[in-house]
Write a structure and sequence with these properties.
Blueprint: H1 2-8, E1 11-15, E2 18-21, H2 26-30, H3 43-67, H4 75-92, H5 98-101, H6 106-118, H7 125-133, H8 138-158
Antiparallel strand pairs: 1-2
């Protein structure tokens, strides 16, 4: 994505019905109300709800950082937890609660293990597809468990 951003700028068509926007002010622009060019009434309540959840998780992160003032901490772990708690709340209407428990959620661990396999194989995406179609490696089976868990959460949210 960084290469696409460098090559094409802040607005990149990444699919037939998908536009990826790299500009940091986009949420403010979209959420600016009915007078902006991007106005879509359904977005506004969703973004307001999103904003309150992000603030809630930001306060949890701030508390953890303040609690550890003067001590060395692995900050990227807390940023991961913050990000996945926000994503869980947004996608599934249920946080992974990693900031609260200060533990990795088992599904996020499965995802990270699967991505460790995918990363080195990115130059040969067809090999990744074959590997995931023939789940002989434990990490692939675990990744599929993670996908099944996500599908179940989406089904719950839809109901």
């Amino acid at each position: 994505m960084d290469d696409l951003h460098r090559q094409y700028g802040d607005f990149v068509r990444t699919g037939p019905n998908e536009l990826t926007i790299f500009h940091p002010d986009i949420l403010r622009i979209i959420n600016d109300g009915p007078n902006n060019a991007f106005s879509k009434p359904a977005w506004h309540p969703a973004l307001e709800n999103y904003d309150s959840h992000v603030k809630e998780f930001a306060h949890q992160l701030e508390y953890i950082i303040a609690e550890n003032a003067g001590k060395p901490i692995t900050i990227n772990q807390y940023f991961y937890w913050f990000s996945f708690d926000v994503m869980g709340q947004s996608a599934f209407s249920k946080s992974f609660n990693m900031l609260k428990t200060q533990k990795w959620h088992h599904v996020v661990q499965l995802l990270r293990a699967g991505l460790e396999l995918v990363g080195p194989l990115t130059p040969v995406p067809w090999l990744v597809r074959i590997g995931f179609d023939i789940p002989i490696m434990p990490v692939v089976r675990d990744f599929q468990k993670m996908e099944a868990w996500c599908a179940e959460r989406m089904d719950e949210r839809i109901e």
